[in-house]
Structures are given as structure tokens and as C-alpha cells.
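user: Kindly work through both lines:
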Amino acid sequence: MGKVVLMLSISLDGYFEGPNREIDWHLVDEELHTYINGTMRDVGAFLEGRVTWELMADYWPTADQDPASPAPIKEFAAIWRDTPKYLFSRTRDHAEWNTTIVREVDPAHIEELKRTHGELWIGSENLASELWRHDLIDELRIYIHPVMIGAGKIPFTAGVRVSLELVDTRRFTNGVVMMQYRRVSSVS
């Protein structure tokens, strides 16, 4: 059986994006990007909300066509483009790049996707909140960036209590720290 993994970057003061959806403070250098690519290379499918999918679709499908793009960028472009994606949206009627549109979070459907694809990765906080409410997230990989942005949107607003067990950490030379947690139990 697969698992649902939430990957999220946050600032040291606890925001996942700035007040206007800024993520320009992310410190993704070659070392970090190469590591992330390695963790995502064998992901079975991505689960994405509309905003995240649109941001990704604006850049990643052709990012590897720029000869000046560094190797990790080129590699991730292929990973994102080729990996099946499930876009959770009530408004989009069409999506390209190996994407299936899903209207609602249905726990039975998520379980079926886990059986079909194995690991499912989420990079969308709004979608993650809905999945937390349904007790569907199995693992959390949080990347803490050594920057304070002062304002923005906070993660983990699902209103549920979740017990987690720390299973791994990694410090990168740019100061980013990855903390990997496994869900122990959920209590509403």
C-alpha cells in the first residue's frame, strides 16, 4: 500500500508563502534541488490544488528546454511533466501534462490512488488541509528555510490534532533543514 506525503517549505517564522503568494524567499540551491529530485523521482503521482497546479504548469513543462537551465531544473521538469497528476479543482475543465481533474476529496478515491500509484505527494497547503481533515496524510516532509518573511499564510489550518513521530532530519549547506515526520495518530 502506498502513502500520502505532504512536502512543504516554510520560513523560520512559520509561513509557507508571503501575503501575495510570494515564494521568492525559498533557498533552493543545486544541493537542495538535487536532493528533492531524488526523493520525487519515484513518486507515483502528485496531488495538487488548482493554484499550485497552475503555478507549476506555467513553468515546469518547458523548463528543460532552456539551455541555460541547471541540471536539477531540467531533471525536475521531466519528473513533473511525466508523473501523473491529480488536480483538485471545482473550476478547471481542462488540464494538460498528464493531469486528471478531480472535483472533490473522496477518501475512498485517495485510498485507490495509493493502491494504484504507491506514493502520492502533495505540495498544496489548501489541499493538504482537506486531506488532514479526512486523516489521509501519512507523512510530512517540512523544509525550514532560514529566513523570516514577517507576514503571510500559515500552514496546518485544518483544525485537527495529529501526533507525529520524527523519522529523519537533514541539514543542507544553505541552512535549510528538512524534518521528516510519520503520522502516529489523529485526534479531532
Remarks:
- The mean pLDDT is 93.
- The radius of gyration is 16 Å.
- The chain is about 30% helix and 30% strand.
- The beta strands are 3-11, 45-49, 85-88, 99-102, 119-122, 139-145, 161-171, 177-187.
